[in-house]
């Protein structure tokens, strides 16, 4: 009997047993203005520039505010900024802050704080680095005005400042923002709607946020990271639970109010409980992937990479990840997030239709593959990578490849995948991962699509065509141009097989029905959320 | 006795130094790099290298080890790579829940297992003996997480008597503290109770066959007196030994138990630290566990002399 079977069985039985039972005593005794939330992972550090994990970004979005915020239509909207002006040549951006903004320590938010914060952010963010590369100066004009002077236009400036991809351009007091971007801050003072209760922080177990009384929300309706972030709750407790069955039981029992991402196995149990709501959490979902090492045989030959694409079944991968729930996945003939404004499938034919093993084997033979071991790194401690690894091992074996299946943990994969040595000397041929759909809407924050050789993400693909089309997207001036550019990027990246997309999948979120105001989005938004007793 | 204890404590120092060197070396050669975990997926190799430098991970092995030992000698366990908090503070934060869990489990074990073992020995071969030993085999065979989930289902979800998860410090009241520990202690204690009950039974059986027990019976001493005054005291050495050794089992079992019941103890801290390659935290915890283990062994040796006057040092 394995652990997963046991937890499914017991959680299932628990769910059935609880159907029809009202909220238990523990929930009734708790304050209705305190929300207990189970995040996707442990909040191990709390510097959203130094540590770029999603969980850090999600917590930081409560504590620190941004100049602009991305809304549900994926458009950047003013947030801390009152107005902006661009010079005719597009090289000078002048921004003015909203009046009355305050940090949690009572100090006003000034331009000098913004300048220091943007400087620290830009040193660690891919789009920030692009701006830094063309920056002439970034200066505070007066307490509420600051100016960014560039050597050439950067049309995606507002998107860069609004985007929700980590690291976001959070604004901190100057004294904190002056910390080396490669060293961790020790004060968590922001100007966002919630304050971080550092004294109650137990890393790995609990993080507490309290309402900031002096927060000045915008008047517009909240929409993702944009608009009026009106807090209905006084206190939000993040309770880290490493065990999914425990989180499921705690939610059923009313000991927690909201579980960010229940695993697919336990969702049917939660759906049966009349006190619990379950819905898709992030409509932008995730893109499954495995990357092949372009530096070494056999995948240094594009024919070997294409052979794998011709044979892989995205359905096999997706079913391994999400099970039998068809609402949770869809095929993805490309690299970009479906159902977003510039989505395009141009060139995606190789991933569609019946899988052609005979043609794939022939192409693999043409590439010169002669049975050498293919080192496949699989992190067993991450269910998504484990599921994908098992499918890939089977795929490669059916293609007649000699698989060296390295089952290990995520920490080791993370370290080993950075090795550029040959597979037999500590390197690798392929590893598995996935990317948040929010990061894959455009090339703006999509590190995995970059194909600039040594500077590219692990696997180091070198595809000048892909890079050329990515530049075309950065230069696009409207949605139509962007959409056309994305199509070209997709086509070029598939032709050179920058990496192998294994499908698009969604995950659920679950909360007790006495909680309202939860919205779908790429991160959990706590503004507008309320709770009744 | 005092000189013996002092000699034993002195002897533990090289043991702990060897453990420290072993742990440090093991972590150094183990795959995995905290800088990679910190930098995240967006980071370039240059970013990762800068983080490695800022954490001092690029320095030679001996320099890193020497610096760590120097800090330890000055009472400083270092700073967590991830949280930027002192390791001693993190351990202190997590010590309460783990100690509480271990104490309640230990108490539960002694209260349940020793009488069960005594009764099983007294009724050796009977139905009662077979039932007790049957339960012992059952308890010994079930993994902690299976027992944990079953208990949570029955007593938390079904009956709603106890909470599913969490920990409340003793300062918040005795019952709030205890109610969070009952289910985890039973789950963790199952294996331990089974082990102690079986050892108690075996030790008691041996003692009950001794001449002096027959003499005690012949002179008309009651069952309770024979069992708990004459027999149990003489059977105590192996029981004390297994209880002591069991503390190591408890430390290992606490890792799983704390995860199943979401208790913020040292077990969870250990797992988190290992998965993130948070070297200073791992080193600090291993040192602490080694110290506890050495201390427990010392205490067992001392208790031997109290329960069996024939043992002298």
- Beta-strand share of residues of chain A: 15-25%
Low-pLDDT segments, ≥5 res of chain A: 1-8, 10-29
Low-confidence stretches of chain B: none
Computed CA radius of gyration of chain B, to the nearest angstrom: 24 Å
Which percent band covers the strand fraction of chain B? Answer: under 5%
Class based on secondary structure composition and strand pairing of chain B: mainly alpha
| Shape field of chain A | globular
Shape of chain B: globular
Oligomer: heterodimer
Average the pLDDT over all residues of chain B and give the rounded result: 87
Distance between the termini of chain A: 40 Å
Structural class determined from secondary elements of chain A = alpha+beta
Tell me, rounded to a whole number, the average pLDDT of chain A. 92
Largest sheet of chain A: 7 strands, mixed
Task: Give the biggest sheet of chain B.
Answer: none
Set down the secondary structure blueprint.
The complex is a heterodimer of chains A (533) and B (313).
Chain A: H1 3-18, H2 25-29, E1 34-38, H3 54-63, E2 68-70, E3 76-78, E4 81-86, E5 92-97, H4 111-122, H5 126-133, E6 135-140, E7 145-150, H6 157-162, H7 174-177, E8 194-196, E9 206-211, E10 235-239, H8 244-253, E11 258-259, H9 267-272, E12 276-280, E13 286-292, H10 302-311, H11 314-322, E14 329-330, H12 357-366, E15 373-379, H13 383-398, E16 402-408, H14 410-416, E17 430-436, H15 464-475, H16 479-495, E18 500-505, E19 508-512, E20 515-516, E21 530-531
Helix pairs in contact in A: 1-8, 10-12, 11-13, 15-16
Chain B: H1 2-29, H2 34-39, H3 45-55, H4 61-73, H5 87-122, H6 127-141, H7 144-158, H8 174-179, H9 182-208, H10 211-218, H11 223-234, H12 236-260, H13 266-276, H14 279-307
Helix pairs in contact in B: 1-14, 5-6, 5-9, 5-12, 5-14, 6-9, 7-9, 7-12, 9-11, 9-12, 12-13, 12-14, 13-14
């Amino acid at each position: 009997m394995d652990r997963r079977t046991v937890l499914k069985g017991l959680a299932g039985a628990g769910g059935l047993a609880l159907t029809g039972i009202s909220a238990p005593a523990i929930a009734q005794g708790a304050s209705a203005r305190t929300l207990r939330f189970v995040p996707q992972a442990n909040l191990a550090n709390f510097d959203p520039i130094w540590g770029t994990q999603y969980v850090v970004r999600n917590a930081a979005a409560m504590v620190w505010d941004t100049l602009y915020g991305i809304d549900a239509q994926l458009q950047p909207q003013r947030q801390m900024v009152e107005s902006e002006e661009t010079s005719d040549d597009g090289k000078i951006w002048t921004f003015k802050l909203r009046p009355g903004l305050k940090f949690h320590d009572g100090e006003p938010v000034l331009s000098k704080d913004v300048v220091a914060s943007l400087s620290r952010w830009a040193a660690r963010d891919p789009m920030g680095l692009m701006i830094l590369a063309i920056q002439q100066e970034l200066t505070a004009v007066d307490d509420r005005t600051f100016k960014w002077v560039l050597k050439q236009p950067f049309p995606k400036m507002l998107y860069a400042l609004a985007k929700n991809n980590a690291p976001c351009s959070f604004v901190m007091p100057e004294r904190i923002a002056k910390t080396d971007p490669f060293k961790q801050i020790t004060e968590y003072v922001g100007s966002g709607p919630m304050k971080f209760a550092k004294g109650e922080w137990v890393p790995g177990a609990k993080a507490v946020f309290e309402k900031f009384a002096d927060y000045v929300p915008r008047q517009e309706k909240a929409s993702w990271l944009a608009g009026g972030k009106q807090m209905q709750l006084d206190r939000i407790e993040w309770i880290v639970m490493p065990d999914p069955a425990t989180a499921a039981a705690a939610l059923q029992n009313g000991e927690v109010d909201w579980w960010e991402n229940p695993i697919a196995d336990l969702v049917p149990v939660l759906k049966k409980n009349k006190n619990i709501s379950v819905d898709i959490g992030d409509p932008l979902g995730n893109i499954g992937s495995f990357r092949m090492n372009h530096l070494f045989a056999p995948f240094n030959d594009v024919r070997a990479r294409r052979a794998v694409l011709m044979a892989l079944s995205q359905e096999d991968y997706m079913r391994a990840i999400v099970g039998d729930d068809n609402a949770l996945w869809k095929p993805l003939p490309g690299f970009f997030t479906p159902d977003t404004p510039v989505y395009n499938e141009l060139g995606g034919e190789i991933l569609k239709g019946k899988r052609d093993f005979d043609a794939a084997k022939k192409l693999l033979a043409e590439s010169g593959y002669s049975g050498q071991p293919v080192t496949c790194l699989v992190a067993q401690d991450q269910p998504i990578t484990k599921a994908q690894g098992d499918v890939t091992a089977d795929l490669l074996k059916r293609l007649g490849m000699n698989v060296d299946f390295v089952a290990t943990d995520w920490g080791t994969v993370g370290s080993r995948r950075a090795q550029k040595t040959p597979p037999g000397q500590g390197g690798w041929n392929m590893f598995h991962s996935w990317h948040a759909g929010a990061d894959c809407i455009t090339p703006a924050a999509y590190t995995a699509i970059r194909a600039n050789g040594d500077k590219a993400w692990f696997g180091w693909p070198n595809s000048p065509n892909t890079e050329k089309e990515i530049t075309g997207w950065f230069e696009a001036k409207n949605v139509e141009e962007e959409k056309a550019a994305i199509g070209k990027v997709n086509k070029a990246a598939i032709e050179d097989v920058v990496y192998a997309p294994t499908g698009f999948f969604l995950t659920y979120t679950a909360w007790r029905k006495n909680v309202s105001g939860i919205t779908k989005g790429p991160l959990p938004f706590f503004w507008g959320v309320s709770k009744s007793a | 006795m005092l000189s013996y204890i002092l000699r034993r404590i002195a002897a533990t120092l090289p043991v702990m130094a060897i453990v420290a060197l072993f742990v440090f070396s093991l972590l150094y050669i183990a795959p995995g790099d905290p800088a990679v975990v910190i930098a995240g997926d967006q980071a370039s190799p240059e970013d990762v290298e800068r983080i490695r430098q800022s954490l001092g991970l690029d320095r030679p092995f001996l320099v890193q080890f020497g610096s760590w030992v120097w800090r330890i000698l000055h009472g400083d366990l270092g700073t967590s790579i991830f949280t930027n908090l002192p390791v001693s503070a993190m351990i202190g934060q997590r010590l309460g829940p783990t100690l509480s869990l271990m104490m309640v489990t230990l108490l539960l074990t002694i209260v349940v297992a020793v009488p069960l073992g005594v009764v099983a020995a007294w009724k050796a071969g009977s139905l009662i003996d077979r039932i007790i030993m049957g339960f012992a085999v059952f308890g010994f065979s079930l993994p902690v997480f299976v027992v944990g989930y079953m208990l949570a289902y029955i007593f938390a979800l079904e009956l709603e008597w106890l909470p599913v998860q969490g920990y409340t410090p003793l300062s918040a009241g005795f019952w709030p503290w205890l109610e969070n520990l009952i289910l985890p202690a039973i789950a963790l204690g199952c294996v331990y109770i089974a082990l102690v009950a079986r050892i108690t039974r075996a030790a008691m059986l041996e003692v009950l066959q001794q001449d002096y027990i027959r003499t005690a019976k012949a002179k008309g001493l009651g069952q309770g007196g024979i069992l708990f005054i004459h027999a149990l005291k003489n059977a105590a050495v192996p029981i004390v030994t297994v209880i002591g050794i069991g503390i190591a089992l408890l430390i290992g079992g606490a890792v799983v138990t704390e995860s199943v019941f979401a208790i913020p103890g040292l077990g969870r801290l250990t797992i988190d630290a290992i998965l993130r390659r948070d070297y200073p935290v791992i080193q600090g915890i291993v040192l602490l566990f080694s110290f506890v283990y050495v201390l427990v062994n010392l205490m067992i040796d001392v208790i031997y002399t109290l329960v069996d006057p024939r043992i002298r040092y």
